[in-house]
Amino acid sequence: MNNQPPTSVDLSIIIVTWNVWPLLRACLQSLASVTTPDPLQLQIRHLSPEDGALTVEVIVVDSAGSDETAARLPEEFPWVRFLRSETNVGFTGGNNLGYSMSYGETIFFLNPDTTLFALDEPLVAAGNRVNPLWQLYQTLMSHATIGMVGPQLRYGDGSWQNSRRHLPTPLTGFWESTWLGQLWPTNPWTRDYHMSDWPATFVHDVAWLNGSAIFARRSALQSVMQAGDSGPFDDAFFMYSEELDLCHRLRLAGWRIVYEPAALIMHYEGRSSEQAVAARHIRFNTSKVRYYEKYFGRGWAWLLRQYLLLEFRLQLRIEELKLRLGHKPVLRRERMAVYQAVLHSRLQPR
User: Fold this and answer.
1) CB 10 within 8 A of CB 54
2) How many CB atoms lie within 10 A of CB 330?
3) Pairing state between β 146-154 and 256-267
4) b/e burial code for range 53-76 (CB count within 10 A of at least 16 → b)
5) Half-sphere exposure of 281 (CA within 13 A, CB side)
6) How far apart are CA 124 and CA 122, in angstroms?
7) In angstroms, rounded to a whole number, what is the distance separating the alpha carbons of residues 91 and 84?
8) Phi-psi region of 267 (alpha: psi -120 to 50; beta: other; left: phi over 0)
9) Assuming Cys at both sites, which of 36, 48, 174, 209 could form a disulfide with 150, CB separation 3.0 to 4.6 Å?
């Protein structure tokens, strides 16, 4: 059997992982369940003939993880092309690295904390059992103007996860994932951003998709890359907002982005980032500010940064008060350390 990397395939699946081996293992097992091995090429798999017989390669990028992945993945999944980065290059850098090593006509950026629903999955209505990979590919290829498609996502308990969005407006950042948004969850900026009035049961165009599972044409991704880019994602975003930025650039280049609910994928959200809470807060909010500066200008970015820092100062004071009152001191000190780290960062890009 030929163990050399392929030079041309229909689909490249790129997975960036960091210390989530059990989830990554389940993800790869689910991919194996909807593909079959090539008898001659180890690192090629196929969809079943009834699903279109696409050729598939799977690339896993380990971003300087310290768990079992490097030891166990090559042994358990020899058909996976495994790349290991000695430094943590983040979601963006890892996907760009995987992209630079891929050969697919289409690219599926997939999180390790996802699984494809098996063909006999009970959550899929009888008579509508589809291979998510084939469904996404068909939808992407249904019209030459479609540059990216995304599936319907479900949380680990089977409940629906909203994965499609409108582009943010300058006011969205003050209401999305903030105290203001918690105080007024039905505010018009958040509702519009989340497409709350749009049913999730039909195929439709969207502004951007959740980056945990995005399926794109290579030609579309190439069209928004400039000389010197390491990949389609903007390296200025370590993680968070990188898919928003990519989708924004695709739309500016004239490509359509489509939500396809017939393709179902389970998403066990945030299992990597929850291992480093302070870093998650810093990166999420720093990327948010970075996006604002890129598309709305320095003035809006400065206002948003000051508001977000104010929220963290208030949260720190609340935790200090609770600590003085003797309420769960271990928890209070942990949270104070997180908020102090965020404030120390000033939410300034490195």
Assistant:
1) yes
2) 8
3) parallel
4) ebbbbbbbbbbebeeebeeebeee
5) 21
6) 5
7) 13
8) beta
9) 209
Please give the backbone phi and psi of residue 279, each rounded to the nearest 5 degrees, phi first.
Answer: -60, -35
Residue with tokens 């090593």, as numbered in its chain: 101
Task: Give the start-end residues of each E strand in 202-314.
Answer: 204-205, 208-209, 213-217, 256-267
Q: Which two tokens stand for residue 283?
A: 């990166």
Q: Can you give the C-alpha Rg of the chain in angstroms?
A: 21
Task: Kindly report the length of the chain.
Answer: 350
Instruction: Tell me the per-residue pLDDT of 75-112, one tens digit each, with 9 for 90 and over.
Output: 999 999 999 998 989 899 999 999 999 999 999 999 99
Task: Name residue 209's beta-bridge partners.
Answer: 164
242 SS3 class: helix
Beta-bridge partner residues of 81: 59
Structure tokens at 103: 């050969």
Other beta carbons less than 10 A from residue 125's beta carbon: 7
* Positive/negative CA dihedral, 223, 228, 231, 232: negative
152: left (phi over 0), alpha (psi -120 to 50) or beta: beta
